[in-house]
Amino acid sequence: MSFASDLKKVTNLDEAQHLFESEVARISKLTVYRDSEDKYEKRVLKIQDDIYRHLDSLNIKGILYVYDYMLYQNLIKSQVIDVMHDEGFTKSDRLFFRRLWFFIGIYSICFIGFAIYMTHVVKPISNNVSRETANKKLDSDKQVKQSGDKKDDDEIVYNKYRSQNTTKKILKEDETWANR
């Protein structure tokens, strides 16, 4: 809303002070008034005079306070503070981001610790094999050769009873069922 329409709604001194503060805060963000102290001071006085005229028409007497942060000299300081403290985030947003960075930090520490553990503590299996291991391997190779019939049962063939491909073992079972 515009300053003029907001001014028409003012009915007491507290509302007038609030309108004055909000309007000064609005113009203090405009670069036209930030760049020129003279223009800023004249605009603040004009706003103050407009509010006084409206209050006089309502027969309300009082004083509008000009606080330190409203002075031109303090605008530069507030600009630096605004850059340092971004008010775009709510308190819950800040809390969320703090927790997020905390858990990212914890995760990073765990990941780096795991990587160090894997490279320095866990040893790869060496190529040097003991005699016992070699003997066990030879024994298992002999057992595989002896159970050669079992490999033949795992071969995939066409099963005419099921009209699809199955293993020889399942085909044999189907043949015994068919020959009963």
Overview of this protein structure:
The protein is mainly alpha-helical. The chain has helices at 3-9, 13-28, 31-35, 37-57, 73-84, 91-120, 131-146, 148-153, 168-178; strands spanning 156-159, 164-167. Strands 1-2 form a two-stranded antiparallel ribbon. β1 (156-159) and β2 form a beta hairpin. α2 runs antiparallel to α4. The protein is elongated. The model has no long low-confidence stretch (mean pLDDT 79).
Give the topology.
Blueprint: H1 3-9, H2 13-28, H3 31-35, H4 37-57, H5 73-84, H6 91-120, H7 131-146, H8 148-153, E1 156-159, E2 164-167, H9 168-178
Antiparallel strand pairs: 1-2
Helix pairs in contact: 2-4
The biggest sheet, with number of strands, parallel, antiparallel or mixed sense and barrel status, is: 2 strands, antiparallel
Give the end-to-end Cα distance, rounded to a whole number of Å: 95 Å
Q: Low-confidence runs (pLDDT<50, min 5 residues)?
A: none
Helix coverage percent: 55-70%
Instruction: Tell the overall outline.
Output: elongated
SS-based structural class? mainly alpha
Estimate the strand proportion: under 5%
- Report the oligomer: single chain
The number of helical runs is: 9
Mean residue pLDDT: 79
